[in-house]
TrEMBL record:
This is MarR family transcriptional regulator. CDD domains: NAT_SF. Residues 150-308 form the N-acetyltransferase domain. It comes from Caulobacter endophyticus. It holds the Pfam family MarR_2. The keyword Transport does not apply. GO terms for molecular function: DNA-binding transcription factor activity; N-acetyltransferase activity. The keyword Transferase applies.
Length: 309
C-alpha cells in the first residue's frame, strides 16, 4: 500500500522531472552556452561575489570541492578567471573574472533571462501567478534554517473570510460537516464584526511560515461577567507545534484582563483534540446534550472556566 510519505516523494520527483525538462537542465550545455549547469552556477558565484575563494563557492553551491577546483582550473585555462594571493591568508587564492570571463557571464545571463522569460510569458496569467507563488514558496522553504515557529497577531483585512473558508474546508474534510457548519461560522464571524467592542471582544490569528495556521475569538456572553471562547481551529500541518495551547492561553489571559469572571465555550464530543486542550487549560464540562447537527448525530458540550480562581 502506498503511504502518504511515498506519495509525497513521488510528487516531488515528478516536479523535478518536469522542471529539469522544461528548463533544459539536462542538456549538455546550459541555455546554449558552452557551459554545463554546474559550470554556469560556478560562473555566477564568481561574477556576483567580491574576491571569492574556492571554499566559499563550495559552501554556497554544496558541490564537491574537487569538482569546483577542476571547474576553476578549466576557467583559468580558458582565460575566464584570474587569481591572486589573499593578503589576509596566504594559502587562499582570491578569484576574479577577467574581461573575457565577464563577457561570457553577461552573455549567459542574457540568454538565461530570455529563456526563463519565454517560459513564463507563454503561460496564461493564472498559471503564471500560480507558478511564481509556488517558486517563491519553495525558495523560502529551502532557505529557512530554523524550524517554523508560530506567532499570534490581531485581525487584518481578509482574515474573517479566511477563517470562515478554512474552517469550512477542514471540518468538511475531517468530519464530513457541510454547508450548514460553514454558514454557522460565517454567521458567528459576521456578528463578531458587527457587534465588536474592543473593551469586551478580541481575536487572534496564528501564523507560521507566512501563512494562517489557526484562530480564536473572544466575545462577550449573554450573562454579565461571562465571555465566550469561539472559532478555535488549527491547521492539520501545524498541529503539534503548540498553536492551540498558545491561542487558548491568549484568549484566557485577555478575558481576565477585561474583567470577565467566567469563560464558556461550545464544542462537540467528536472534536477530541480540542477537548484535550480545553481540559488542559482548566475548563470543565458543565452541560452535555445529544443533538442532530450538520447532518450527523452529535453530542453538544458546554465547557466553562472560572477566571476568578
Amino acid at each position: 500500500m502506498t503511504t502518504q510519505h511515498d506519495q509525497d516523494v513521488a510528487d516531488l520527483r515528478a516536479f523535478n522531472r518536469t522542471y529539469t525538462r522544461r528548463l533544459g537542465l539536462l542538456d549538455a550545455s546550459y541555455d546554449g552556452s558552452p557551459f554545463t549547469l554546474s559550470e554556469a552556477r560556478v560562473l555566477y558565484e564568481l561574477a556576483t561575489r567580491t574576491d571569492p575563494v574556492a571554499a566559499g563557492i563550495v559552501r554556497a553551491l554544496g558541490l564537491d570541492p574537487a569538482q569546483v577546483s577542476r571547474t576553476i582550473k578549466r576557467f583559468t585555462e580558458r582565460g575566464l578567471v584570474t587569481s591572486r594571493e589573499s593578503p589576509a591568508h596566504g594559502r587562499h587564492l582570491l578569484l576574479s573574472l577577467t574581461d573575457e570571463g565577464r563577457a561570457a557571464f553577461s552573455t549567459l545571463e542574457t540568454n538565461t533571462k530570455a529563456s526563463i522569460g519565454q517560459l513564463i510569458d507563454g503561460l496564461h496569467p493564472l498559471r503564471r501567478a500560480r507558478l511564481l507563488a509556488a517558486a517563491r514558496a519553495i525558495n523560502a522553504v529551502f532557505e529557512g534554517d530554523a524550524p517554523p515557529a508560530a506567532r499570534l497577531r490581531g485581525l487584518e483585512p481578509g482574515d474573517l473570510g479566511m477563517v470562515t473558508a478554512r474552517q469550512g474546508f477542514l471540518y468538511a474534510g475531517e468530519y464530513g460537516w457541510g454547508r450548514d457548519h460553514e454558514a454557522l461560522i460565517a454567521e458567528i464571524v459576521a456578528r463578531f464584526h458587527q457587534d465588536f467592542d474592543p473593551a469586551k471582544d478580541d481575536a487572534w490569528i496564528a501564523e507560521a511560515d507566512g501563512r494562517m495556521v489557526g484562530s480564536i475569538f473572544l466575545v462577550r456572553g449573554e450573562a454579565p461577567g461571562t465571555a465566550k471562547l469561539r472559532l478555535l481551529y488549527v491547521e492539520p500541518d501545524a498541529r503539534g507545534m503548540g498553536v492551540g495551547q498558545m491561542l487558548i492561553e491568549a484568549c484566557v489571559a485577555r478575558a481576565r484582563a477585561l474583567g470577565y469572571r467566567r469563560l464558556d465555550l461550545w464544542t462537540v464530543t467528536t472534536l477530541t483534540a480540542a477537548r484535550k486542550l480545553y481540559q488542559r487549560a482548566g475548563f470543565q464540562v458543565v452541560e452535555e446534550t445529544p443533538c442532530r447537527r450538520f447532518g450527523q448525530d452529535l453530542v453538544d458540550q458546554i465547557w466553562s472556566l472560572d477566571l476568578t480562581a
